[in-house]
């Protein structure tokens, strides 16, 4: 046994002792307030931000089954995704539920650093999750400890219509040259090469990620995300040069800021555009009958020799540090995370399971992504998940401006650099 | 058009007038028709960008069913009533009192107090978010109906005070001189002179306060977290997804959520004509 | 006791009347506002510890080009929003007749104010959509291409304000409806005896009596223009690249998305300072006009 695992074992024991004390405290408090006998099994409250009705239904089903098995009452409070981002900063501080939904990676770390998420390494040990999780374990790990359970992942890349590509005799671009040629072919066929709606600025962040990962690689990209590299660094010059080349060649939808990704997706579905950079949820922009035509291709190689790194964003569930029933929350996690339960939960939204022992998906898009992930060397999450939220806000606004006014590049980058210098002191 | 009354003996003219108003109304409500059109469509049509076409497949009933199937709309609806009705009542009471004093008593600092009421009303909500939340946590009201009621009453009292003060200030002075001459106490003056004359104003204020409190979502997010106390706007927003929103279903929910304030307006209108028919000045 | 009350009731009663409203408003709204001014001197993410920043937030704000864009847009909002009170008055005059069915029609005029902003914003967004929007359809009829208003940094604010005016006009309409029903019929009757009719009657008899309610409409319109951010959030998210932001939106963005509560509070303080200028002018004018009419 290595020193490291020993240490984490000790930590786990410590944590469980703390857990016990808290548990006893909670139990005492419970009796003191003379709770009704029905609540003897305790209660677990969950705040979810699930927008997908099918997925909410699965969660409710699991909660019901859990209650039947253990007698623990489960209350699910649901919020919409955007409002939840505001609310979580409130409730983690002042009145936490026992389980909450959030994002792994940097956004999770922000709360871990402030001591707002509970260390659940003990649960990882007990349930042996480490062996079952692949790359996603890293996304919930800070300083060697785990602070959440990864849920479904989204692999970002290019999507296109198989029938259009077959019809025109096109193939998914593998290299930058292929990509440029395909764009030219699309334009001469009267199509927009890359559909992109930037009303919400995030699609620009993803595009930047892909280009930067293909040109500078994961390590430098993450250094930039963590504020260790300047936005005026020469390494970014080829990224913006290449991007400008595309903009000037009219690769992207005109008037991008007037619409969101849904309208951009509709353009792809209606064969007005050739490709689109998104996650598997692009299928929602397609009529049911056309969904079978959707195909995935990784973003093309730009600099030969740079390994394949991708944006792979993973949502997660956590136990707030101020939760009242941490043991109950762990029990529920263990139940929800059983391969078939987790599989059913993720199948409802079509995301990629983090466990390698989940039943195979019925969704061909998920299976294609799982296949594709096998050749990925390393993953980032997404621009607005990897960097500081304040930086992301300014960064994506800058990219949006760049896509409209590429001539303002220096000005924009100087502004981003100012923001970076302010945030990452 | 007002102030010229429509002659009662000319039904044709009256009919034409109503027709004209209806025409203006149709133009005025074009965006609403778009919402109704959206609520009658399938998600596929909207995703395909067919916003302004007639629904291919009439889906209104299914969309409403989806609203109630996907989120506990009735529960939220009841919560909204529990939050809104007392809030409106308290706002009316408090603002009548403050408005009366500020309009009719010329004490030192009157202008300053009034300025604070008006000024506080100008504040953007986000900036009070954390202080108000911390206050509610410290008094143990976080995540309760009461937190929302207390906040809404406090916040709306600012606007309502401006409203009531100006309406009461518009009453003729002779009214109050007469009341004083008869030896009426301040309470009697308020009760028997001011309030009866304020019925149309109070009705309008009730409608507006009801609407603002009913439509609030921001404070519901800041001050509560349990579905058990969240208002109907939370149900509406629950229908929005992380990546996609089924706008047809959201539009249906919007129509549902809008029903109570519009009903309230309809019911409150009977007080609107009160001022005219009563022959206001009873001096 | 009752003797004491009688002697002092003329000042005790008003004090008791104003106490509940003033205490509630003071402890929750006014106190919180001062607290947020205090926050503007700190660097704070809303969760962790606050660090004293002195005037740094203000210095940064005044050096931020976005601040001036927002300020300019606030002026556009203010100017365009001034259309709401007269249009609201026009609607109120239009429906203020006692005819069968009018009650129902009146209620429908009120609808824009009650529809959820998110839905109204989305629907107006569909008006402006350059590919599938109503505007595009109309332009296509004439064989022209519709301008992409929401992607144009110079046009975007105007397009958003038009959408925001819709509920605001309904708001003003309700105020004027209440005002019209508070008119003294004696004065109107007297005006009629003097031979005032139609436009004359409106201008010389009715409008002066609506002055107080006009003041309320002016105030809520200014508040609406300065405080609203939700329509922007739904329609453009402040874009393209911040060119449709106003101060209230910038503050919302900074505190909610960027988690910079200190900076957001600084923006709010500046916004509030601007409003104080308006409030001072507003109250002085109101009091002066009241004295004239009495």
Strands, helices and their partners?
The complex is a heterotrimer of chains A (425), B (283) and C (294).
Chain A (H helix, E strand, L loop, with lengths): L2 H30 L10 E6 L4 H18 L2 E6 L2 H14 L4 E5 L2 H8 L7 H7 L1 H4 L3 H4 L1 E2 L2 E2 L2 E7 L1 E5 H7 L7 H13 L3 E4 L6 H24 L11 H12 L12 H9 L3 E6 L15 E4 L11 E10 L7 H11 L2 H9 L16 H10 L4 E3 L2 H4 L2 H16 L4 H15 L2
Parallel strand pairs in A: 1-2, 1-3, 8-9, 11-12
Antiparallel strand pairs in A: 3-11, 4-5, 6-11, 7-9, 7-10
Chain B lengths: L10 H18 L1 H10 L3 H5 L12 H11 L2 H32 L5 H12 L3 H14 L6 H25 L3 H9 L4 H12 L1 H17 L2 H6 L8 H7 L8 H22 L5 H5 L5
Helix pairs in contact in B: 2-14, 4-14, 5-8, 5-11, 5-13, 6-8, 8-11, 11-14, 13-14
Chain C lengths: L1 H38 L2 E2 L7 E2 L3 H8 L1 H17 L2 H12 L6 H8 L1 H4 L2 H12 L5 H8 L14 H25 L4 H9 L4 H12 L1 H17 L2 H6 L11 H11 L3 H33 L1
Antiparallel strand pairs in C: 1-2
Helix pairs in contact in C: 1-15, 3-9, 3-12, 4-9, 7-9, 9-12, 12-15, 14-15
Question: Can you put this structure into words, describing what you see?
Answer:
The complex is a heterotrimer of chains A (425), B (283) and C (294). Chain A has 425 residues and is α/β, with parallel strands linked by helices. Chain A has helices at residues 3-32, 53-70, 81-94, 106-113, 121-127, 129-132, 136-139, 162-168, 176-188, 202-225, 237-248, 261-269, 326-336, 339-347, 364-373, 383-386, 389-404, 409-423; strands at residues 43-48, 73-78, 99-103, 141-142, 145-146, 149-155, 157-161, 192-195, 273-278, 294-297, 309-318, 378-380. Chain A folds into two domains: 3-154 and 314-366, Periplasmic binding protein-like II (D-Maltodextrin-Binding Protein, domain 2, 3-Layer(aba) Sandwich); 155-312 and 367-423, Periplasmic binding protein-like II (D-Maltodextrin-Binding Protein, domain 2). In chain A, helix 10 (202-225) runs antiparallel to helix 11. Mean pLDDT of chain A is 88; it is low at 1-40. Chain B folds into two domains: 11-67, no CATH class; 69-278, MetI-like fold. Helix content of chain B is 72%, strand content 0%. Chain B has 15 helices and no strands. Chain B has helices at 11-28, 30-39, 43-47, 60-70, 73-104, 110-121, 125-138, 145-169, 173-181, 186-197, 199-215, 218-223, 232-238, 247-268, 274-278. In chain B, helix 4 (60-70) packs across helix 14 (247-268). Chain C has 294 residues and is mainly alpha-helical. Chain C has a single domain (61-293), classed as Orthogonal Bundle (MetI-like fold), CATH 1.10.3720. A two-stranded antiparallel sheet of chain C has the order 1-2. The chains are: A alpha/beta (425), B mainly alpha (283), C mainly alpha (294). Chains in contact: A-B, A-C, B-C. At the B-C interface, helix 1, helix 2, helix 5, helix 6 and helix 7 of B face helix 1, helix 4, helix 5, helix 6 and helix 7 of C.
């Amino acid at each position: 046994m290595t020193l490291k695992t020993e240490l984490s074992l000790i930590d786990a024991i410590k944590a469980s002792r703390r857990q016990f004390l808290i548990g006893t405290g909670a139990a005492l408090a419970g009796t003191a307030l003379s709770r009704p006998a029905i609540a003897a099994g305790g209660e677990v409250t969950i705040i979810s931000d699930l927008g997908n009705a099918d997925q909410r239904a699965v969660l409710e089903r699991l909660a019901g089954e859990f209650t039947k098995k253990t007698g623990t009452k489960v209350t699910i409070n649901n919020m919409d995704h955007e409002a939840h981002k505001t609310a979580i900063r409130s409730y983690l501080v002042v009145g936490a539920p026992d389980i909450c939904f959030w994002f792994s990676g940097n956004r999770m770390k922000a709360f871990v650093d402030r001591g707002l998420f509970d260390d659940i390494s003990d649960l990882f040990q007990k349930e042996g999750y480490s062996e079952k999780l692949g790359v996603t374990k890293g996304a919930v790990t800070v300083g060697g400890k785990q602070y959440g359970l990864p849920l479904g992942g989204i692999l970002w890349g290019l999507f296109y219509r198989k029938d259009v590509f077959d019809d025109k005799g096109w193939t998914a671009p593998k290299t930058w040259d292929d990509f440029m040629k395909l764009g030219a072919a699309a334009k001469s066929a009267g199509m927009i090469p890359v559909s992109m709606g930037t009303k919400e600025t995030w699609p620009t962040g993803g595009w930047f990620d892909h280009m930067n990962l293909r040109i500078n690689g994961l390590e430098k990209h993450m250094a930039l995300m963590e504020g260790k590299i300047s936005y005026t660094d020469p390494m970014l010059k080829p990224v913006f040069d290449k991007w400008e080349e595309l903009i000037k060649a009219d690769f992207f939808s005109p008037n991008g800021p007037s619409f969101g990704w849904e309208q951009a997706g509709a353009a792809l579905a209606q064969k007005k555009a050739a490709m689109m950079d998104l996650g598997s949820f692009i299928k929602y922009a397609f009529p049911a009958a056309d969904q079978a035509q959707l195909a995935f291709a990784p973003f093309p190689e730009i600099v030969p020799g740079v390994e394949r790194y991708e944006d792979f964003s993973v949502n997660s569930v956590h136990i707030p540090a101020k939760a009242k029933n941490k043991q109950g929350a762990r029990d529920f996690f263990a139940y929800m995370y059983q391969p078939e339960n987790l599989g059913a939960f993720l199948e409802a939204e079509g995301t990629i399971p983090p466990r390698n022992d989940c039943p195979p998906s019925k969704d061909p898009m998920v299976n294609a992504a799982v296949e594709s992930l096998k050749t990925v060397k390393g993953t980032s999450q997404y621009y607005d998940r990897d960097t500081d939220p304040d930086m992301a806000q300014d960064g994506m606004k800058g990219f949006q401006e760049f896509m409209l006014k590429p001539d303002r590049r220096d000005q924009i980058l100087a502004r981003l650099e100012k923001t970076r210098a302010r945030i990452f002191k | 058009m007002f102030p010229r009354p429509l002659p009662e003996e000319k039904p044709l003219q009256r009919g034409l007038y109503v027709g004209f108003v209806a025409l203006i109304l149709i133009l005025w409500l074009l965006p609403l028709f778009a919402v109704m059109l959206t609520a009658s469509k399938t998600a596929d049509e909207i995703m395909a960008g067919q916003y302004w076409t007639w629904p291919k497949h009439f889906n209104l009933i299914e969309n409403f069913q989806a609203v109630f199937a996907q989120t506990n709309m009735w529960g939220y609806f009841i919560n909204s009533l529990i939050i809104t009705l007392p809030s409106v009542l308290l706002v009316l009471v408090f603002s009548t009192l403050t408005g009366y004093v500020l309009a009719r008593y010329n004490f030192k600092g009157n202008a300053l107090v009034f300025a604070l009421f008006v000024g506080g009303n100008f504040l953007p909500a986000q900036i009070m978010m954390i202080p108000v939340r911390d206050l509610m946590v410290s008094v143990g009201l976080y995540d309760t109906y009461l937190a929302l009621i207390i906040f809404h009453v406090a916040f709306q009292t600012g606007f309502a005070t401006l409203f009531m003060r100006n309406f009461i200030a518009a009453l003729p002075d002779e009214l109050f001189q007469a009341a004083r001459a008869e030896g009426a106490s301040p309470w009697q003056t308020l009760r028997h002179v001011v309030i009866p004359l304020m019925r149309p104003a109070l009705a309008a204020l009730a409608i507006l306060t009801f609407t603002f409190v009913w439509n609030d979502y921001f404070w519901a997010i800041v001050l509560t977290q349990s579905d058990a106390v969240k208002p109907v706007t939370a149900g509406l927003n629950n229908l929005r997804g992380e990546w996609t929103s089924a706008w047809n279903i959201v539009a249906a929910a919007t129509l549902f959520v809008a029903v109570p304030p519009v009903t309230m307006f309809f019911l409150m209108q009977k007080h609107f004509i009160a001022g005219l028919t009563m022959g206001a000045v009873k001096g | 006791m009752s003797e004491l009350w009688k002697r002092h009731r003329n000042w005790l009663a008003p004090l008791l009347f104003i106490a509940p409203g003033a205490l509630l408003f003071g402890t929750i709204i006014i106190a919180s506002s001062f607290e947020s001014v205090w926050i503007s001197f700190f660097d704070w993410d809303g969760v962790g510890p606050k660090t004293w920043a002195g005037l740094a937030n203000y210095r940064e704000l005044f050096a931020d080009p976005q601040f001036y864009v927002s300020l300019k847009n606030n002026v556009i909002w203010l100017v365009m929003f001034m259309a709401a009170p007269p249009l609201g008055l026009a609607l109120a005059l239009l429906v203020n007749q006692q005819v069968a069915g009018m009650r129902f029609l009146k209620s429908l005029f009120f609808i824009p104010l009650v529809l959820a902003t998110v839905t109204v914003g989305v629907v107006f967004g569909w008006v402006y959509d350059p590919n599938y929007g109503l505007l595009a359809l109309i332009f296509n009829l004439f064989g022209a291409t519709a301008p992409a208003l929401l992607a144009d940094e110079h046009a975007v604010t105007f397009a958003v304000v038009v959408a925001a005016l819709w509920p605001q006009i309904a708001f003003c309409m309700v105020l004027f409806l209440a005002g019209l029903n508070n008119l003294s019929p004696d004065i109107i009757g007297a005006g009629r005896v003097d031979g005032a009719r139609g436009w004359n009657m409106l201008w010389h008899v009715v409008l002066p009596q609506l002055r107080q309610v006009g003041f309320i409409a002016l105030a809520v319109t200014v508040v609406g223009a300065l405080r609203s951010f939700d329509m922007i959030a739904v329609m453009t998210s402040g874009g393209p690249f911040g060119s449709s932001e106003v101060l209230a939106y910038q503050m919302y963005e900074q505190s909610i998305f960027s988690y910079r509560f200190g900076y957001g509070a600084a923006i709010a303080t500046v916004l509030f300072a601007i409003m104080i200028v308006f409030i001072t002018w507003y109250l002085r004018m109101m009091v002066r006009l009241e004295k004239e009419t009495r």
